[in-house]
Amino acid sequence: MSRACVIGSGPNGLAAAIVLAQAGLGVDVYEAEAEPGGAARTLPLTLPGFLHDFGSAVHPLAAGSPFFSTLPLGEYGLEWIHGEAPLAHPLDDGTAVVLERNLDETERALGADGTAWRRLLEPAVTNWKDFAQDTLGSTLLMPHHPLRMARFGLTAPRSARSFARAQFASERTRAVFAGLAGHSFLSLDRPLSATTGLMFAVMIHACGWPISHGGAQAITRALMGYLESLGGTVHTAHRVDRDALRAMSCALTLCDVSPAGLVALAGDRLAPGYRRSLARFERAPGAFKVDYALSEPVPWRAAACRRAITVHVGGTLDEIAAGEDAVAQGRIAERPFVLVAQPSLFDSSRAPAGKHVLWTYCHVPNGSGVDMVERIEAQIERFAPGFHDCVLARHVSAPATLERMDANLAGGDIIGGAISLRQMLFRPTVRGYATGVPGLYLCSASTPPGGGVHGMCGYHAAKLALARMK
After folding, report:
1. Across 283-302, average pLDDT
2. pLDDT score at 135
C-alpha cells in the first residue's frame, strides 16, 4: 500500500487525509500541537467548565461544504445547532435588524428592501448545491454553471459601500450588509467586499449559520473519527521540521501550512522563483480576539439579539466602513467592527448552569501589538449597557497569541491570506496546490478557494495529488 503524509490537522489537512484514505492510501497526519484541529479547536481558556472556541465558532461553510456533506459525520458525533436566528445587528436606537434563516421571513423583516434582498439572493439560495460547488471549487476548474456565476461575479468590481447604497434604501439594511461584508477583512470601499457580503448573506438562507454541539472541536473529532475508520492515523504533539520532512518515505505529502511554513519546511527543495512568489503572498489583516466567561447572557438593549447566535457590533454602514478602512490603511480603529458569537445561549454544554461564554474579535493590522480590549468592550457596552458587570473572566488572544497557538495564523491572519483579485485566482501563486516538487502539495487556506471551515482546499489538493500520482 502506498503511503501518504499530511502535515497539519486543521479541517483542510483532515479533508485531504480523508480523500487520500478513500483512495486506498495509508495515511498519517502529523500535528504539532497537543490538540488536533488547527483553528477548529475548543479549549478551557478562562474558568473551569467554560469551553471556548479558539478559532472558528460559527460554521456556515462547514454546514454547507460540498465535501463535508458527503461524509457521515453525524455518525461520529457532529450535531449542528441553528438557534432561533443566524444573525442580529443592533443599532443605536435600541432595535436590531435580525436576519432569519427563512428567506420569506427575512424579506418581510426588511420591509421596503425585502424585494431587493430576495432578488439578489434567491437564485444562489435555491441552487445552493451547484452554487457551492462553483464558489468553493478550485479556480483551476471551469464553473459548472458559468452563466449563474458570471451574474454573481458582476459584483466583484463593486465595493460593499457603493453596492449597499445602490441596492438598499434603508440605512438599517445597509448596516446589516456592511456587517456581512466586514467578514472580508477588506476596506468596504475595495472591490470584492460586496461579493463577500453577498456570499455570507446567501449562506444564511441556504445552510444557516450554525454552531456545532460542544464547540468547533466536534467538527475535528468527527473528521478524525471518519478518517480512523478508513485506517488513517493522527499523531499529535508531533512537529515536522525540514529534516523530518526529508526523511519521510511518502508517495504523497500534503502540507496544511502557510506559504511561509512551506518555505520553512521545504525551502531548499523549492525552485528559487517559486520561493520568491511565496514570499510575495500578501497576508490579511489580523484578528484581536477576546473570549469571555459571563455570569449571565449579554444584556443587549435590543432583546432580539438574544435570538441570534451571531451578533455584528458596529453600528451603521459608514461607521463599519470607517473602522475597516482604518485597518486596511494599517491603523487601529477606535470604534472597531466587532464580531460576536454567543453559543451558550443554544448549547448548554459550553458553560456551567446559568453561566455563559462569549466569543469576540475585531480586525487589526497584521501583527499589531495594540491592546483592543477596551475598544471591543466599549462597542459591546454601547449596545448592551451593563455588559462589564457580567464578565467573570476574559482570555485575550492578540495576533501574536493566535500565531503562537497555530502557526498558520501568521500575524493573526485567520483567513489564509488577503482577499484580492490576484489572490482569489492564484493562491498562493499560479501553481495553486502544486509546489514543483514531485509528490509535495500545499493544501491550506492559502490555496483555493481560501479561508473557512469547509475542507475544500484539502479536498482539491488531494484530488490533484492523486491524479498526478497515477
Report:
1. 98
2. 84
Neighbours of 430 (CB within 10 A): 12
What's the CA gap between 383 and 260, in Å, rounded?
40
Please choose, from the candidates 60, 47, 150, the residue with its C-alpha nearest in 3D space to the C-alpha of residue 101.
60
pLDDT band at 249, cuts 50/70/90? confident
DSSP sequence for 26-58: EEEEE-SSSSSSTTS-EE--SSTT--EESS---
- Cα separation, 58 vs 217, in Å, equals 12
Domains of the chain listed by start with CATH number: 3-42+54-74+212-281+417-469 (3.50.50.60), 80-210+284-405 (3.90.660)
Omega prior to 86 cis, within 30 of 0: no
Closest Cα to residue 235, out of 401, 441, 14? 14
Q: Would the pTM count as exceeding 0.70?
A: yes
What is the average pLDDT value for the chain, to the nearest integer? 94
Mean pLDDT of the region 96-105 = 97
Across 252-326, the runs of DSSP E, i.e. the strands, are 252-255, 286-294, 308-313
